[in-house]
Amino acid sequence: MEGTSSLIAPRERLCTLGAEVLPPDLIDDSLPLYTLGYEAITWIERNLLQPNGPQAGQPVRLVPSQAMFLVFFYAVDEHGNWVFNRAVRRLAKGSGKSPFAAMLALFELLGPARVAAFDDDVPGGVVGMPVSMPLVHVAATSQDQTANTMRMIRAMANKRTPLARNYRLDVGKTYVETPDGGRLQQITSSASAAEGSELTFAVADETEHWTGSNGGKDLAETLDQNLGKTGGRLMETCNAWLPGVASVAESTFEGWVQQQEWLNNPSHPDRLTSRRQQILYDARVAPPDVDLADEESLRAALEFVYEGLPWVKIHDIMQRIWSPAYPVSRSRRFYLNQPNAAADAMFTLEEWAALGPKPGDDTFPEITDGDEVVLFFDGSRSRDATALVGCRIFDGHVFTLGVWQPTPEAPVNTGEVSIAVQRAFDRFTVAAFFADVREWESFVKVSWPELYGDDLIVHAKSRGTDPQPIAWDMRSHSSEFSEATEMFLAEVQDGAFTHDGNWDTSRHIGNIRRGEYRGRLYPRKESEASTSKIDAGICAIGARMVRRIVLASPEWEERGRETGWTVGW
Question: Which terminal residue of the chain, N or C, has fewer Cβ atoms less than 10 Å from its own Cβ?
């Protein structure tokens, strides 16, 4: 979780004011300057009792990761506005997501969850007050999905608890009410109560299961609209999702990625969308190269994912993972918190991620001006995505130059695409540029060849009745592209190249399904009507293919003899 640099508290102040609610080793100069998080921690630990387990009946004691989440989630700026409008807790199975969601829902219903005043003498510099007539929803696409969280809410607020007596609560199976009109209730995607409510806070439970087919997308949109009326906020809980099924959990992650790209690049085209999102994303994900069969590797990964959670029994989880009846894909999604591809997916995200940049690795290859590269383009105007991907000739490093997604209101902007192509030729030495013809014929057969054709060493079609420097119609090269796909898959599995970690391309790679063309492997979408795009993945396969074509060409061999230049494999 990351704070905002302009809202950072001095370390000395935090060490003095935060010592009672955060372990000293977690207090550093990256914490928010203003936050109600300390009040949230204090209220929860003073008012809620542990409902089950060895500590049943004792006051709740938050673990450090839960406390840190609250400190960041309740951060405000100097005007008292929330820093984050939305949060996600994507944690491995058994991490305590449901009990924590229950605690947060009750705090929003009863506790000092809104800013009353600033006060430098209190932890977080902010004094809280209760929400006026709060309406809290615990939402899911079915009652079964909300069962765990509601069960914990009922256990923490039942009539025998001090909480129920002190706040005079009326607790039912699907609701909790206060004497002054506050209400916490369970809703599902079929509940009419969701529409039009003046919602102050919502828990969206298990959003990896929220899809268009079960009403999850509509429910998410309704919650957003209702929260927008009151300035309320939402917290999602989820396990790792199944890529390609278009779940709300995956969509929210994509929004967070856009936000991070904007934060690191103020000129990013999605900067306005990213600014509105303001998502706090809390996740602990095992490294992509975990070997599930190796005891040391698996134990280290699980200890990282479940760090600081004393109720988790690592030994028991390892036994479950090693059970012959338990699928590897479920083990990775549920216990390692890794989004894992569908059974018919061509690539695993772990394999792909292992080829990308690693945090703190200063030796990872980066693209630089003047590099000799090849390009591959796959375009669509209104249905599929359009993408331009490059591959450096020297070492085979794959990088993304652009991915454009059409909307029902606006097709792909051809001017933006042409500018990206021009910038690529301005920045790099482009040896070959292959572009699919469909829907972009005037560009790939006329305007781009006129502008760039003379600069290319290897042409897409150099012989025959209709030679083309750039146009490479995939419909007439199915067999060749099938071979390129098989080679690309082997290279991914062997770790034979690197890529820049672009999220759009990575997502498209994960969406590719195994198809067959005349007995050979071929990339395909989940279905023709699927909204899960694969076009940038197609371009990555194509860029690697074009590099091989260039390296095997007599034109490249002749150039090597002239310059004495050699390529690294």
Answer: C
